């Protein structure tokens, strides 16, 4: 793995020159618009980067974008990878390891997810303060690379408490409805049944999705502070459950994206280099 990471990072460095990213960003389903706020310096297609997995989803563009956002050097993944696409956990999290090798000091993750907490509504935002991994696998299984992180990384604070509080204050100052809660990661790609939604709420979930947790585990393994935010695109309430389509999910994500973008821009602007 180390050889692949270093080879990929070396190729990217040869294409971006002396640009040094401080912050890595993973943009979730329907949430690629944050890139419009960037002063873009370089874009690389995943397909052209050695050893880099390629997003198979038509609504994920599959670009690694380098530039400035809120005065900081960032690298953004416009299009993420999912377990249900057939990739293994090491492939899904490979881009995070590459971004760390390129020099990022923190990771920001966004996703589209379904609301489990009946106090939440679609179109709201939820800052992730903890997670439950129900994907049946962990990206750290296998021989540990000590150069990347410890065999048994601590997960008592997988999401940085200081960043959570800052983001909640930003949301309040901008009159944005923004909750904090527990994210449950499942494999997908099928959406949940009524019984599954009920189960996920009982075990403490506030939102459910099909991503994020593998990348967060690997970021913690490498000592990267993490901030993660969900756009709640549908409501998984067993009592009133209705069918939902991908088109509806993308529409809600698009409508809520400006609120998420506002929070992330102000959060990034306030982060010390």
Write the layout of secondary structure elements.
Layout: H1 2-16, E1 23-27, E2 39-45, E3 63-69, E4 72-78, H2 89-102, E5 106-115, E6 125-133, H3 161-173, E7 178-185, H4 194-202, E8 207-209, H5 213-221, E9 226-235, H6 246-269
Parallel strand pairs: 1-4, 1-5, 5-9, 6-7, 7-8
Antiparallel strand pairs: 2-3, 3-4, 5-8, 6-9
Keywords: Glycosyltransferase, Phosphoprotein, Transferase
GO molecular function, one term: purine-nucleoside phosphorylase activity
Function: The purine nucleoside phosphorylases catalyze the phosphorolytic breakdown of the N-glycosidic bond in the beta-(deoxy)ribonucleoside molecules, with the formation of the corresponding free purine bases and pentose-1-phosphate.
SSE succession: HEEEEHEEHEHEHEH
| N-C termini distance | 29 Å
CATH superfamily: Nucleoside phosphorylase domain
Number of domains: 1
Helix tally equals: 6
User: What number is the mean pLDDT?
Assistant: 95
Structural class: alpha/beta
Q: What strand line-up does the widest sheet have?
A: 5-8-7-6-9
Main beta sheet: strand number and arrangement?
5 strands, mixed, barrel
């Amino acid at each position: 793995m180390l050889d692949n990471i270093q080879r990929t990072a070396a190729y990217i460095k040869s294409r971006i020159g002396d640009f040094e990213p401080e912050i890595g960003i993973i943009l979730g389903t329907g949430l690629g618009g944050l890139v419009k706020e960037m002063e873009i310096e370089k874009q690389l297609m995943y397909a052209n980067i050695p050893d880099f997995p390629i997003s198979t989803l038509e609504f994920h563009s599959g670009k690694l974008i380098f530039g400035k956002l809120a005065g900081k050097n960032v690298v953004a993944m416009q299009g993420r990878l999912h377990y249900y696409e057939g990739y293994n956990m090491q492939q899904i999290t490979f881009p995070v390891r590459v971004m760390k090798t390129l020099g990022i000091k923190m990771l920001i993750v966004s996703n589209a997810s379904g609301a489990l907490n009946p106090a939440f509504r679609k179109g709201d935002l939820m800052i992730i303060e903890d997670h439950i991994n129900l994907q049946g696998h962990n990206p750290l299984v296998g021989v540990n690379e000590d150069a990347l992180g410890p065999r048994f990384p601590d997960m008592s604070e997988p999401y940085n408490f200081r960043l959570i509080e800052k983001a909640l204050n930003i949301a309040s100052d901008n009159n944005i409805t923004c909750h904090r809660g527990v994210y449950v990661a499942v494999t997908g790609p099928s959406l949940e049944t009524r019984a599954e939604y009920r189960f996920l709420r009982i075990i403490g979930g506030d939102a459910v999705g099909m991503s994020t947790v593998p990348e967060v585990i690997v970021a913690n393994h490498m000592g990267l502070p993490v901030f993660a935010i969900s756009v709640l695109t549908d409501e998984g309430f067993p009592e009133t459950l209705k069918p939902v389509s991908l088109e509806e999910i993308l529409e809600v994500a698009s409508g809520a994206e400006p609120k998420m973008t506002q929070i992330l821009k102000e959060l990034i602007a306030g982060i010390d280099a």
